[in-house]
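Tokens help. Consider this.
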Amino acid sequence: MTMHTTIGRSGEMFWFKGTLVNVRVSWNAGEDRVSVVEHYMPYGESLPLHVHRNEDEVFHILEGRMRLHIDGQEMIAGAGETVLAPKGKPHSFRVESPEGARCLTITSGGDFEKMIREMGEPATSKGLPPQVEPTPAMIVALYEACARNGIEITGSPLS
């Protein structure tokens, strides 16, 4: 990743599926259960198409460009733009900027953050984790963790 962002440690840092995640506000910190998660992602990063059953997902792009697919519609969003993926609607994204992207993901309820905590591992440095090709066991584990946390994987990552 070649962004010129300084990665701070004001939250809890995790490596999650090839990205660096900083939980800036945890869902259990306030009564409304709002979670603010900062993502540092390399070019080409894409999650499988999925549906959140219990919470909306808001993306606020801080740096870079992301192609978002939400309920059959595609759009490009860049720094300063905010996009809503409503609960119950299938969505995914792909990082399109060569330098990577950084965004905030805001949810309410804790499902998404709990899944990150379950599938991630504490980051041992401030950089992106080593890239690893997912094994069949890793893919099954992701599907199961998502299901336990109100998220259903419904398709493939964006290419």
